[in-house]
Write a structure and sequence with these properties.
This is GNAT family N-acetyltransferase. The chain is of the alpha+beta class. 31% of the residues lie in helices and 26% in strands.
Length: 150
Amino acid sequence: MITIRPGTRADVPQVFELVMELAIYEKAPHEVTNTPEQMAEDGFGPNPLFGLLVAEDTDTDRLIGISLYYFRYSTWKGKRLYLEDIIVTERYRGRNIGRQLFDATIEAAKQTGCTGMMWQVLDWNEPAIGFYRQFGTRFDSEWTNCHLDF
């Protein structure tokens, strides 16, 4: 049985395993500089920087998926939920767990007064693009992502 629930500090080690699984899938594990300790502090310290939903296989007590998000503000749209990552471990894909996490994230956005939700998807990730199309997602073609690393 699969349960979708808010994540806790105790979940962070398993969450980080899923993050590393995603980094390997995206061929970029060398780019991960975060640590489980930093993630625990950033998500569950005195000033949490992100929200976390987890999908748990209650038969094994293992986390099999996550939705990690935070809030941003648009001068045009107001409060928005930014979905940083939705991850389902490979063995559990194709079982509607991603849909359950996505639906729960949409509900979290609505419950917190957001006017909408935003996220990114790699242009080569056809399975993810197909998944998002099911929700009537609008894909931007005019914007270029910019990064400044310190």
